[in-house]
Amino acid sequence: MKPDYEERLRAIQEVALELPGFTVPIGRQEQELGLWAGIFIQTTWQRDSGRDLLPVWHLINEKLTLEPKRYFDEYQKNRMQIDASDIHTEGPVTEAHARSAWMNYFRTAEHWKHTATRLPFFIEKYDLSRKMWCAHTTAMRWGLTQHRQTLRAQDVPLAERSFWRGWVRFVLWHEKIAPPTVDFVMRPFLTRTMPMHSPLVQKPRHPFIRFISRLGENVDVIPE
Asked: Is the peptide bond before 179 cis (omega within 30 degrees of 0)?
């Protein structure tokens, strides 16, 4: 069955409109999504490029769209009883780690939403961005672990697999620097560089996509 990417986009919007992290008033719709804009635009790109049909993409994307929406619904009902302390650092990633990372983001985003502070804006922004990236990458690692057998068995062209593995590595690297994933940063980057057809069957020509593909050559991003 083809994954319902419209449902995934709605899920992101519902969470982001409540706890966007922070927004930048530049006038585009995705600005309202704050730190969720990167996931929203990435999900839109997967749908529009046909990667919603490739399990190597849509199985991980589910961990960044439908699962956080489910955790957010739980957070809204039981926010006083939520334990967000068990954040993944090392070792095998479990669903509990992913859940706790998202809960930690929700709690932090809600705190900043309702707290008047004299701290410089960049301190708030970095705190939120760091929590978002922690949740983002922990969720991806959980998806790679949960679906490792299916992901290994997928028969996709070598060029597409290298691109996918390189993209996974590239995203996971961002956890430590935690750049903001708001629209004015992500939209030009994704819409002008990412391939709009799938799967890739030959080495890409665009310098950035070629760089990403090289990151994925002869490496394994799927846990044992």
From this structure: no
Give the Cα-Cα-Cα angle 142, 92, 69 (nearest 5 degrees): 25
How many residues belong to the chain? 224
Q: Which two tokens stand for residue 100?
A: 């706790």
Query: Cα–Cα distance between 96 and 100 in angstroms, integer?
Result: 6
Is this prediction's pTM over 0.85?
Answer: yes
The string of pLDDT tens digits covering residues 17-70 is 999 877 655 445 556 788 898 899 899 999 999 999 999 999 999 999 999 999
Residue 147 φ then ψ, to 5°: -105, 25
CA distance 61 to 89: 21
Residues sharing a CB contact under 8 Å with residue 4, sequence separation 6 or more, in sequence order: none
CA distances from 36 to 125, 135, 146, 155, 162 (A): 13, 12, 23, 31, 26
**Gyration radius (Cα) of the chain, Å:** 17
